[in-house]
Amino acid sequence: MTAALRFDPIRLPEKCEQLRKEVRAFLAEEIAAGTFDPHKPNREDTDVPEFSRKVGARGWLGMTWPKKYGGQERSFLERYVVTEEMRVANAPTRRFFVADRQSGPVLLKYAPEHIKMDILPRICRGEICFAIGMSEPNSGSDLFAAKTRATKTDGGYLINGTKIWTSSAHIADYMIAIFRTSPPTKENRRHGLTQFLVKMKQPGIKVNPIGQITGQYEFNEVVFTDFFVPDDHVLGEVDGAWKQATSELAYERSGPERFLETYYVLTELVRAVGPNPDTRSAEGIGRLVAQLHTMRRMSVSVAGMLQAGKEPVVEASIVKDIGTVWEQQLPHRVRDLAAFVEETATNRETLERQLDFAIKTAPKLTIQGGTTEVLRGIIARGLGLR
Amino acid sequence: MAESDNIVVETAEKIFADLADPQTINNDKKGSWQAPLWQALSEAGLPLSWVPDDLGGSGASLADGFALLNAAGRFAVAVPLAETMLAGWLLAQAKIASPEGEMTVLPASPKDRITVDADGALSGRCRGVPFAKAAKHFAVLAHGKDGVAVALVDASKARTESGLNVGYDHSDTVTLDKVQPITIKAASGVDQTNLMLMGGVVRSLQIAGALESMLDISVRYSNERVAFEKKISKFQAVQHNLARLAGESAAALAAATSAADAIANAKSFDDEVYLEAAAAKIRCAEAAEKGGGIAHQVHGAIGFTIEHILHRFSLRALAWRDDFGSESYWAVELGKLVASRGADELWPLVASR
Q1: Is B49 within 8 Å of chain A by CB?
Q2: What's the structural domain count of chain A?
Q3: ipTM attached to this prediction
Q4: B97 inside domain
């Protein structure tokens, strides 16, 4: 076989189910207390710092990390359960989500000890927010075309250039970014980029909000002008960021957030059609649920393989490809099915408001965090086509 | 499941490799491959994998049997292996011993129904019964006044009208008209829905296997075929098509193996198992259409010829969609289940495992 794709049927262990109950109870309390409205989609321009601190206090941030950095040394499958329950409840996770999923693990792997001791416990307590500085005005999917320069100076580097489409930069305390420390070589065009930890909210950094088609201002342009980064903020090998970027992708690409972004419209459709749907609604809902279930089982499978120490890079890319295309189409399929919902359905207004937002959100889902085209290139490479 | 994990699958794969090579079978217009393949499978005890030792079978686990059927799908095996396994399983639910030889199950569609009268005679008409013409016995699920019964029937006592599915395999119409079974027993642990779900998971695993092979031969072909002075695998349009085929194959594999795992480890056919099995049939059927379409597109005209092996996988995968309830049927049923549980019970159902 040229392509030995594996999706082992992972079952979540018993302790995950106990945890799931705790998370659901916590979310129910927070909803009752008015911290957030579960019928409102995960509004990315809603920042709820006290929610982050409460989640941190429960031990649900950095939960797979070593205890000495504030973590809980729990499994990826347990983290998976927390993540999916938060998504489905439309909990306001934006302040901690990037740090927990991506930035923390990068620091764990590449930051010097004193930085880890300083920052990781604060992520675990839900106190700080991270952004990711990858794209630039002329470098999006082609990550290695990045031009923002890091020039060596006494005790550190001076940064000049612009990052763009940077989610949460306007509230972030830190950014993990890649900057150019050397030109690419003839042999390796990916050479010359270095990963840095950047402390935000300082002179030399200007964050300009960018309006989105949803009406939100969730991503930004971030301009660096002679901004100083100390030597101990270099993460990993100078000029060698390209070696570090790929192994984390499996974590980033296969999580429940890659197919649950518009899930809320399906729940609301089921509510709107009621307990005795007509054949058309029943078939439509049945298909969507079957597709959702399949993606979740694929995603859980990848989480299980990660927990077992495997590196299912191609499988993870497949999950993101299929998952994001699905969550992008979901609002349109729900709209089709909602066309004949009774005028008297009690949640009709909620469903319409959600559909309006989900339909506007949909286009970004196959772009953010690796476009469909890039993912299919990775899958094709895994199949031995390039 | 690219590698064999156990002795049952290893045995089966060796037999398939020796006696069910798709190219050899495709070249053999007389069907002389069938008898030796069936004989080898029978000698290895594979058709009665799901029948306990004391009922005449080889007593393999459900999990091993499912893995074996996934392998059978990878070879697009066209003898009644899956059907005999399923028949043996059904008979074993009522502690009825399995005879030797080919079997199939009645009904094979959720719409058909066999009834049992006061004298224990069976009546009813079943359409789309896979391999009924080849079967020596039928395992029948029947409805009577006292509930569900399982029966073993001599196939020669039924009237069987020959038919072919889109994969050129027998899919026949069987009519029982007051047929006295060889054995009939009341069954408590199985009903028609369970039988359809079980059959649906069997077909899902076969479809997933066929898609794995379609991906494999499509990738290989794209690395050989030259057009516009380069291998077609170097064209981005072709690469992206194959990536999508890999996605469909992966989805089918994940859905089918997850459902098989759910049934193999469940105490009963509860809502969670229902979701797993129905979802597998729905998603695998969708993958058969989308994935098979891409495999053909990559192959161009050569894949449309009867000489090429692609159709052995692509058409069978399409045909398997129809057995034990089509994806439309299961989608309606699953949709009704979800609606009756209510909106706030959807996520707990999906997240149950």
Answers
A1: no
A2: 3
A3: 0.96
A4: no
